[in-house]
Amino acid sequence: MKETYKSYFLYFLILVYVSGSIGFVVNPTFFSPFTPYTLLFTCFVFLIHQPISDKKYILAFFSIAVLGYIIELIGIKTGLLFGNYSYGNGLGFKLFDVPLIISINWAMLICAGIVTVSKVFNNKFIVISVTAFVVTFIDLIIEQVAQKLDFWKFEGGLPGLHNYLGWIGVVFFTSYFFYPWIIKGNSKVSSVVLLLQIIFFTSLFIFI
């Protein structure tokens, strides 16, 4: 795909997030069903800017997605990893009670986090450690609106420290194993994707 078209898709993605932020505040009931499609489109835009001709990169990305799905499945069935929670219908199609889009989104955030943080730090251990905290921070923001938007809910309301420690561990070890291939990604687009999700979910937390 030509670089010009890739840029157009990126600009349109930014427009989608800006308009979505406004739309959710004005009429969340109308805009909420579009969430899984927005996340899927985000992943598409993210991937077309990555080295998709590199088979190892693509294998690493989808391996993280599959691993994320398995971890989520274990999580909701046992409550051991993140506490007791269940998914609603706000994230679209579910396979064995886990929305498929959530695993793809976490893979995207982990990959984007690794590349973005690597532009600040050179040490692998520091990069994957900071990435674990960045991705978990985004999870923390999403948690504040997840139940309102029917994404997921925890028994007793908001999750406890158990959930966040679980995610820090999952992101850290996932990043550690796939680091050599993911590090090749596009830092500009990775940073934009992270920033868009942080701003979007923060605005929802503040205004809805």
The major beta sheet can be summarized as: 2 strands, antiparallel
Q: Can you count the beta strands? A: 4
**In percent, how helical is the residue content?**
over 70%
Strand content: under 5%
- The SS-based structural class is mainly alpha
What is the tally of helical segments?
8
Ends distance: 38 Å
What does this protein look like?
With 208 residues, the chain is mainly alpha-helical. The protein is built from 8 helices and 4 strands. The strands form 2 sheets. A two-stranded antiparallel ribbon has the order 1-4. The chain has a two-stranded antiparallel ribbon with strand order 2-3. Helix 3 packs across helix 5.
List keywords for this structure.
mainly alpha, two-stranded antiparallel ribbon, 8 helices, 208 residues
Short description:
The chain has helices at residues 3-26, 28-31, 35-48, 55-78, 100-118, 124-146, 161-182, 187-207, and strands spanning 85-87, 94-95, 98-99, 152-154. By secondary structure, it is mostly helical. It has a two-stranded antiparallel sheet. Strands 2-3 form a two-stranded antiparallel ribbon.
SSE layout:
Layout: H1 3-26, H2 28-31, H3 35-48, H4 55-78, E1 85-87, E2 94-95, E3 98-99, H5 100-118, H6 124-146, E4 152-154, H7 161-182, H8 187-207
